[in-house]
Design goal:
Helix content is 68%, strand content 0%. By secondary structure, it is mostly helical. The chain has a domain of 66 residues. The chain is elongated, with a radius of gyration of 25 Å. Keywords: Membrane, Transmembrane, Transmembrane helix.
């Protein structure tokens, strides 16, 4: 095709490529990545607290009622705990992806900054002046 690079998928050629651009957080502004990381950390905290409280109630229910508890939905609760655990894991993974991206951006920025000698001010004058 004229105008396209070999080996690359372009949004004009493939609608899937256009949809996947949304998930490329390296193209997002740093502030939005930071907000996403904060939202995922808050979601992770909520889901984890809910997971632990529900697990403790489920264990208590099983210990108190035994086989009768299984007939009244304890196995359903185990399935719910699995779903909450998967949601907590996905929130944590998205947070770590955002953290990694922000850390890489910071290190790239820090490498580009000019280095000053110890005791030198930004204007180029020493501390003795």
């Amino acid at each position: 095709m004229p105008g396209s690079r070999i080996g690359f998928r372009h949004a004009a050629d493939d609608p899937e490529a256009a949809a996947m651009k949304l998930f490329d957080i390296t193209r997002w502004p740093a502030f939005l990545v930071f907000v996403l990381a904060g939202g995922m950390a808050a979601s992770f905290a909520f889901v984890t607290v809910n997971l632990f409280s529900q697990a403790m109630r489920s264990v208590e229910f099983l210990q108190t009622f035994g086989r009768e508890a299984i007939r009244h939905g304890a196995l359903w609760q185990v399935g719910e705990l699995s779903v909450w655990g998967g949601l907590a894991l996905s929130c944590w993974l998205v947070f770590k992806i955002c953290e990694h991206d922000l850390t890489n951006r910071y290190f790239d920025w820090a490498r580009k900054r000019p280095r000053r000698a110890p005791g030198q001010r930004a204007e180029g004058k020493g501390l003795e002046d």
